[in-house]
């Protein structure tokens, strides 16, 4: 009887020790993830070319743990060579982030804007398909909104940040939808959910994040988008702010 009790106690102690170790590992992982989130935030908001730091952390294996795997996988997601000659989604995101860094001072909330630039195409990892020889990613904006919420919720309790970033992700394709009069656009919902000028700013960077895009033309298109949204008294002047590489 005593022998059985000792074995039971031993098993219980071992189980408690394992649970404690798992908890410590989880806490350490959470702490490390939040530290990385803080580092990324600092570089997104301060660096002239944040992609350099992003690629350093990617190469170091720092995106191997969830939720950063949601960024890492973008290296493996192809895009249409016609619309995105820069290559995979990750290449595009890095270009968008770097252009974002050049115009972020025109944003009303640079922190939100830069995180939206980094996360805007998360949805492509779940929506990219090849159809009849064409690569598409239909509804990646809507899917990406939910993924942005999932990503940020693992790293911050700032509900306002999560909401604002996810709404920019959700509507980042609307400049195209509105200008092309596509049925996917919802102008009234966009006006209710987010800041139109921030969408315009992100839309400009999204377009510039394609190899071969012309800044002057894209700036003109974005201001046409603002006019269609009823904003005619404060055009954006972005072309003069960007450094062509």
From TrEMBL:
The keyword Nucleotidyltransferase appears for this protein: yes
Residue ranges the record marks as coiled coil: none
Keyword Nucleotidyltransferase attributed: yes
Pfam families in the record: HD (PF01966)
Keyword field: Nucleotide-binding, Nucleotidyltransferase, Transferase
GO molecular function: CCA tRNA nucleotidyltransferase activity; nucleotide binding
SUPFAM superfamilies: HD-domain/PDEase-like
InterPro entries reported in the protein's UniProt record: HD/PDEase_dom, HD_domain, HDIG_dom, tRNA_CCA-adding_enzyme
Gene3D superfamilies: cca-adding enzyme, domain 2
This enzyme's EC code(s): 2.7.7.72
Chain ranges of the HD domain: 89-177
Name of this chain's protein: Multifunctional CCA protein
Phylogenetic lineage: Bacteria, Bacillati, Bacillota, Clostridia, Lachnospirales
Protein encoded by which gene: cca_2
């Amino acid at each position: 009887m005593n022998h059985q009790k000792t074995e039971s106690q031993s098993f219980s102690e071992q189980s408690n020790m394992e649970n404690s170790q798992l908890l410590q590992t989880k806490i350490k992982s959470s702490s490390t993830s939040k530290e990385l989130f803080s580092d990324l935030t600092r570089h997104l908001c301060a660096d002239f070319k944040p992609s350099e730091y992003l690629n350093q952390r990617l190469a170091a294996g720092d995106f191997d743990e969830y939720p950063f795997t949601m960024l890492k996988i973008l290296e493996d997601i192809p895009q249409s060579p016609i619309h995105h000659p820069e290559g995979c989604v990750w290449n595009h995101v890095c270009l968008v982030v770097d252009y974002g860094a050049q115009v972020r001072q025109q944003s009303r909330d640079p922190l939100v804007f830069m995180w939206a630039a980094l996360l805007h195409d998360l949805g492509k990892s779940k929506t990219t398909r090849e159809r009849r020889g064409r690569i598409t990613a239909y509804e990646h904006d809507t899917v990406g909104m939910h993924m942005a919420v999932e990503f940020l919720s693992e790293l911050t309790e700032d509900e306002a940040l999560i909401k604002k970033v996810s709404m920019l992700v959700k509507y980042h394709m609307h400049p195209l939808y509105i200008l092309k009069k596509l049925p996917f656009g919802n102008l009234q919902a966009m006006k209710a959910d987010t800041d139109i000028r921030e969408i315009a700013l992100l839309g400009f960077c999204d377009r510039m994040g394609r190899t071969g895009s012309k800044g002057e033309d894209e700036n003109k298109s974005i201001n046409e988008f603002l006019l269609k949204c009823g904003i005619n008294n404060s055009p954006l002047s972005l072309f003069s702010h960007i450094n062509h590489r």
